[in-house]
Amino acid sequence: MRFLVVGAGALGGYFGGRLLEAGEDVTFLLRPRRAAQLATTGLVIRSPRGDLALPSPPSVQAEQIGGPYDVVIVGCKAYDLADTMKSFAPAVGPDTAILPLLNGMRHLEELARRFGREHVLGGLGMISAVLDDAGAVRHLSDVHGLTYGELDGSRSPRMYALEAALAKARFDGVASDNILQDMWEKWVLIASAASMTCLMRATVGDIVRSGGTDIANGMVDECAAIARHNGFAPRAMAIERAREILTAADSMMTASMFKDIERGAPIEADHIVGDLLRRGEGGKTPSLLRVAYAHLKAYESRRARESRPAS
Known about the structure:
Elements: E1 2-6, H1 10-21, E2 25-29, H2 32-41, E3 43-46, E4 52-54, E5 59-60, E6 71-74, H3 81-88, E7 97-100, H4 106-115, E8 121-131, E9 137-150, H5 157-167, E10 172-175, H6 179-200, H7 204-209, H8 213-229, H9 236-246, H10 256-262, H11 269-279, H12 288-307
Parallel strand pairs: 1-2, 1-6, 2-5, 3-9, 6-7, 9-10
Antiparallel strand pairs: 3-4, 8-9
Helix pairs in contact: 6-8, 6-9, 6-12, 8-9, 11-12
């Protein structure tokens, strides 16, 4: 299979790099700055699961895409999706599968409107990774999973082909026959983690040690109630795992959105928290989640105001 991996940041760089390591036909779609950096340093991965250095990984820029690919892996931020779809559109042919690794659900609708639902797979990445100052991908834990599946749960020929390709890579590729359920359960975890760590501006452990266990559990309860309202009640194991992660007193975990706030960057407030609230309309009114969302929108408002040039 021919893979086009959109971007070589922490997510795309890790999974795309592992596929290249396994001998798959992988090309990265890069912006000029990242292309110039990789031309100099190569793609470097530092990981507890094994380091990797790939000099001059195959890459193209948007205007250089010559035709369709079999699979397009998309791992951009939600607020960049419109521009990202425009950049990889020439790579989408009649049989191309688009595998997005964004959080939430709204991106599935946007991709389907742009390219047709038949092109879109469900997917999620379970990995903690960042780019360091030198542009290397730093994998921060032992977890490196990529789950994927047809939106209707079917076992299509392209699913079998993907399964064969991903099985060779040094990460945990999992073909799912219930990918929407899997994505909703991750959304519950991610939205809970983002809401509590951004609202409290602290790690999970700091929040718990300060007496905030009820806040963590309340966030999980509210997010799970919205999933249930939409017909995707989280399974008991998923709820137990979310509570375990978000009430660990020794945890240094924060959501990536918290890290974005700390460095004054754009955030995915509407895609991860706002859209979840919208989908909960008509159900039990959440309170903690609404406060967290107002906090995130206030940050966006202040950031926009402070970035405006002085008159």
